[in-house]
Design a protein that fits this description.
With 108 residues, the chain is of the alpha+beta class. Helices cover 13% and strands 25% of the residues. The N and C termini lie far apart (32 Å). Keywords: 2Fe-2S, Iron, Iron-sulfur, Metal-binding.
């Protein structure tokens, strides 16, 4: 479908699962991953206040919107922050993200 992109999710065992994600519903990556039954707490409901939706971007980081001050401040509270860590609640799905590859932060 023309309004879908492919998001690749690295699973804990190292395998990669590909998902078709709609770009015409206004979903964030966090909302899409929760709907795909990934174990994301998203305690704050997507307000960039808890960092429980953190993902590590493995491929496609250059396609993402610039990090806001709020997102950076919340990520900075994580003891194991990586340079490619992002809050999935702050990433609106869009056509530029086709092929994005992520894994849940802190999951080997």
């Amino acid at each position: 479908m023309e309004n879908n992109i492919t998001i690749h999710m690295q699973e804990p065992d190292g395998s990669v699962t590909s998902h078709e994600a709609p770009t015409d519903m206004g979903l964030s990556l966090m909302e899409f991953l929760k709907a795909s039954e990934y174990d994301i707490l998203a305690t704050c409901g997507g307000m960039a206040l808890c960092a429980t939706c953190c993902v590590d971007v493995l491929e496609g980081e250059e396609t993402l919107n610039e990090m806001t001050d709020d997102e950076y401040a919340m990520l900075d509270t994580l003891p194991d922050l990586l340079p490619n860590s992002r809050l999935s609640c702050q990433l609106q799905l869009n056509s530029n993200m086709d092929g994005l590859k992520v894994k849940l932060h802190g999951v080997s």
